[in-house]
Amino acid sequence: xxxxARRREIFHRILADGYVxxxxxxxxxxxxxxxxxxxxxxxxxxxxxxxxxxxxRAVEGAGxxxxxxxxxxxxxxxxxxxxxxxxxxxxxxxxxxxDSGSTTYEVAVALRHKASLTILTNDLRIAKYxxxxxxxxxxxxxxxxxxxxxxxxxxxxxxxxxxxSADWAFLGADAVHPTAGITNxxxxxxxxxxxxxxxxxxxxxxxxxxxxxxxxxxxxxxxxEITSIVTDDGLDEEHRAAYGDRLVIxxxx
Length: 253
What we know:
InterPro entries: Carb_Metab_HTH_regulators, DeoR-like_C, DeoR_HTH, NagB/RpiA_transferase-like, WH_DNA-bd_sf. This is DeoR faimly transcriptional regulator. Keywords: Transcription, Transcription regulation. GO terms for molecular function: DNA-binding transcription factor activity. By secondary structure, the protein is an alpha/beta fold. α5 (76-88) crosses α6 and α6 (102-110) runs parallel beside α7. The chain folds into two domains: 3-58, Winged helix-like DNA-binding domain superfamily/Winged helix DNA-binding domain (Arc Repressor Mutant, subunit A, Orthogonal Bundle); 68-250, Rossmann fold. The protein contains ten helices and 15 strands. The protein starts with a helix and ends with a strand. The strands form four sheets. A seven-stranded parallel β-sheet has the order 6-5-4-9-12-14-15, with helices on both faces. Strands 1-3-2 form a three-stranded antiparallel β-sheet. The model has no long low-confidence stretch (mean pLDDT 90). The longest helix has 15 residues, at 3-17.
């Protein structure tokens, strides 16, 4: 792989995951750590990423959003395993709020065999998928479209959620941290994510292990404001210990 192609791959991973570790990149791409460090330094000089100790993270800002096309196939098996555990919490006939995102889309897929669900979402891809369920009540928020991620945001979307009281809310996260809590890169999504939490009796964050120990720009919620976090078994023991009983580990698929 050429340096240009390798840096493109690294940049796409950072966009999709929000953060990359140099050691992991070295192993995955088959080059030594010094080469990866030079690649990350080059991307940082171009203003595409922000260097951190041992890796790099996405450049943060209100307008930054990772295109769905980049997210959807990243850690697909882990997301499916997380979604299976999350969906198992839901009983037939319950009401479910689904946040926008690739992991919450997998939750929608895992819910397809549940009966008589009411599903509320601000994600047009999720809405399109759920609309094909044979026995579902689907409610879609209004709002302004963030086109690359098929997400509806803004005052109309927030107001829509304030009119409902659901059994469950399943939220994605750009970062999960023991003190910073649940954070997100795009500040435009914060009001509707908070509205989702307020609208549900129980809030479950669904996110893969790569998001743990990181902080993004804008706070969605403290850990005390959510019920559980479901992640995959790639999370190391040190991080597991930081979240205690709130953490649910999905077994390998």
